[in-house]
């Protein structure tokens, strides 16, 4: 199944860049591969590249992609589409792909620069990969895990068997989603009545774990990112910074430890 992602970055102080100086975006991990963007000033042009930051010394890999490069402002945009296979195969190594002169430097200044900043967006569709598959550090989707869990989280059809009480203790997002949502929908009453209702609801939630399974579907989440997020939440290390920018956004959304 193709995986789509978008890299966006606002490059600052572009007019201060010297000849051949490069500016890079923050690294993001998608499809188990780290990616960055970079721009540079080359003679009278602006260069733009998408970089696959997987080590050339790692096991052989290939990532087939369809890429759309875009530079835009409030009134203008320029896009270029291409197909490229990123790989570290010695006979055809490609770890970065783009355009040495995406546009002229003068046009960039005249039509796209805003307060010294340049907005860049690159859309990527990964159609096929080889050698980049990630081995999970902890399993959440095996049927055997069902016996020791009380909640099923469904992410794009993939099921994660987890502990409701554990997630609620680690994340205010999941505490609200799994434990408190019904309480907060109660009509306004006296403080005593609300506290009493919350106590009854908490007791009911506690008993539910012995009666049946709670299944919740999470929207707008990549299952691979969520796998890494759960591993970190359950105490596994995020190897080589693989939580990445996308994973950090999920971490912020799910608010571990209320932080």
TrEMBL record:
Top-rank lineage group of the source organism: Eukaryota
InterPro entries: BTB-MATH_domain_protein (IPR052664), BTB/POZ_dom (IPR000210), MATH/TRAF_dom (IPR002083), SKP1/BTB/POZ_sf (IPR011333), TRAF-like (IPR008974)
Ranges of residues in domain MATH: 4-124
One Pfam family named in its UniProt record: BTB
SUPFAM superfamilies from the UniProt entry: POZ domain, TRAF domain-like
Annotated BTB domain residues: 149-234
PANTHER family for this protein: BTB AND MATH DOMAIN CONTAINING-RELATED, MEPRIN/TRAF-LIKE MATH FAMILY-C.ELEGANS
Protein known as: BTB domain-containing protein
């Amino acid at each position: 199944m193709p995986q789509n992602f978008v890299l966006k970055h606002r490059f600052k102080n572009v007019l201060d860049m010297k000849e051949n100086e490069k500016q890079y975006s923050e690294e993001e991990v998608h499809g188990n591969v780290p990616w960055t963007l970079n721009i540079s000033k080359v003679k009278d042009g602006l260069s733009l590249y998408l970089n696959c930051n997987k080590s050339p010394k790692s096991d052989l890999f290939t990532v087939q992609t369809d890429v759309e490069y875009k530079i835009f402002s409030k009134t203008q945009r320029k896009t270029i589409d291409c197909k490229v296979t990123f790989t570290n195969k010695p006979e055809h190594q490609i770890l970065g792909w783009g355009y040495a002169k995406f546009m002229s430097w003068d046009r960039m200044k005249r039509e796209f620069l805003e307060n010294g900043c340049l907005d860049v967006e690159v859309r990527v569709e990964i159609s096929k990969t080889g050698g980049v598959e990630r081995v999970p550090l902890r399993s959440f989707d095996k049927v055997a895990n069902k016996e020791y869990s009380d909640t099923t989280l469904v992410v794009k059809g993939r099921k994660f068997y987890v502990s409701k009480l554990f997630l609620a203790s680690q994340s205010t997002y999941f505490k609200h989603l799994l434990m408190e949502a019904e309480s907060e929908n109660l009509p306004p009453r006296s403080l005593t009545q609300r506290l009493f209702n919350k106590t009854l609801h908490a007791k009911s939630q506690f008993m539910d774990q012995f009666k049946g399974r709670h299944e919740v579907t999470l929207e707008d989440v990549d299952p691979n990112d969520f796998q890494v997020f759960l591993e970190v939440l359950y105490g596994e290390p995020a190897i080589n910074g693989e939580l990445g920018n996308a994973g950090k956004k999920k971490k912020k959304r799910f608010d571990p430890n209320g932080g």
